[in-house]
Structure formats: structure tokens, C-alpha cells
Amino acid sequence: MNNHEIDYDIYGDDMQCVAIELDPQETVLAEAGSMMSMDPDIEMNTIFGDGRNQESSILGKMWSAGKRVLTGESLFMTTYTHQGPGGKRRVTFAAPYPGKILPIDLSEHQGKIVCQKDSFLCAAQGVAVGIDFQKRLGTGLFGGEGFIMQKLEGDGMAFIHAGGTLLKRSLAPGETLRVDTGCLVALESSVDYDIQFVGGIKNTLFGGEGVFFASVTGPGNVWIQSLPFTRLAERVIRALPNTGGATKGEGSALGGLGRILDGDNF
User: What kind of fold does domain 7-231 have according to CATH?
Assistant: First the structure.
């Protein structure tokens, strides 16, 4: 293996955290700001780039960091290394909002997983956190994640976060599943990803589910979340008084009509 081999424990139910156990000189990398606690003898270091090739040239580091910016992430990542004389040390990372932490052994998924932006939490040293372009125009425009998604490459452990409850579906060759565009968390590289028009005037205007579905076709595994962060944020904004935020029929053309029919102030 090219990646550091790490042990871990996941704690909690709806607000989970993952504790990574490190042997001497083992390293885990994470998004900035996700660390919850760490033992003595663990050294924290900020790195520039995608986390894999820290011996590469400055130009290579700038290229990998620039790709991360395209996914909405920071130029920098943080590594945590056990620099003590012996024994095991722990560093713990917390999920950013209610949901589940999904551990993925990349060696069991052809060395690559494609996931939504902002879902990456942490990974063993050696895992590359890059970008994956959606080549189809329709998928890029209407797929919910835009033209760019994250990809995790390597042969070690990676951890991603999903909102709400997490569901895994194993698709047979040719088997297709339609998913709300915001609910698709991750998929194996063997899965074909496209978008599909909902169809029907009533469904489009008043269905409340948006205009497009994500269509995923096997073979391979897909992971689906029940509560996308955007949906959670919309509900919070809607509950605030006089925000002018989203109203009834969140994905439909009703707009403010839903609030009027509901008897709310406007």
C-alpha cells in the first residue's frame, strides 16, 4: 500500500465524530477546521495542495491546490502526524452538521470514489483529494453539483460526511436509479452519472421536487443522503421571520404563493 494504514472508531448517532488512531510516524490529513481533539505528541502541519505528493514541485503543488479551489475548498489542508517515541495516539474529527460519517477503504473501490463537494472530512496520508469534471453539459448545468465534483484516489481509508440518514445502493449492470440531485453523496467510478428531466407540466411546476433527477446506472455502489445541507439551510432560513427566503414548494414554481395560501405573513 502507498497510503498510511490507520485504525479508527466512529462515535455518536446524529452528530458523529471519527477518532483516528495513529502509530508513530503515521499521518492523517483533513480539511481545515474539522479537528475536534488530539493527544500529545501529535504534530499539526498545514500543507499546500491535495495531500498526496508533498515532494512535488511548487508548480505541481499550485496546480493541485488550484483544483481544490474549484470545488469550493481551501488552498490548504492540515496533516496530523504521531511524532512521539512509541505507543498509539488519537486525533478526532467532527462532522460539520447532523448526519453520518462514511468510512471508505479505497482499495475496495478500484482506488477511486467520486463524491459531492464539501463531503470530504479526513483520510490517511497518501489519499489525493482532487476534482472530477462532469463531461456531459446537462449533468454539469443541472446535476446539483455543477461541472465539478470531488474525487478521492488512493488505496487507503477516507471518510466523507453525509446529511441525515445514509443509504447505500448496489446497482447491477444496466440497473438505473433516479435520485434527487442534492441527495447523491458518492458513487464508484464504474457508475454512470447523468441527469433526467422530471417530465410533465404539473410535475415540473407544482411537484416540489425540482426539474431534474440525477440518474445513476450500474454496475457499482452509490451512497444517498436523506438531508442535503442546502435543504436543511433552506428550512432554517424559512423559519426566520422576514427573511424573504424560500417558501412552500421549495423546488416548484409556486414561490411565495405557498406562504399566502398557508396564511403566513408576507
Answer: Double-stranded beta-helix (3.60.160)
The single-letter DSSP state of residue 161 is E
64 touches 53 (CB < 8 A): yes
Q: Where are the domains of the chain?
A: 7-231
pLDDT in tens, 33-88: 889 999 999 999 988 765 555 445 555 555 555 555 555 556 678 999 999 988 89
pTM of the model: 0.76
Judge contact between 48 and 75, C-beta under 8 A.
yes
Question: Which H/E stretch holds residue 205?
Answer: helix 201-206
Q: Are 194 and 134 in contact, with CB atoms under 8 Å apart?
A: no
Amino acid identity, residue 72? G
Strand order in the sheet with 212-217: 176-180, 212-217, 192-197
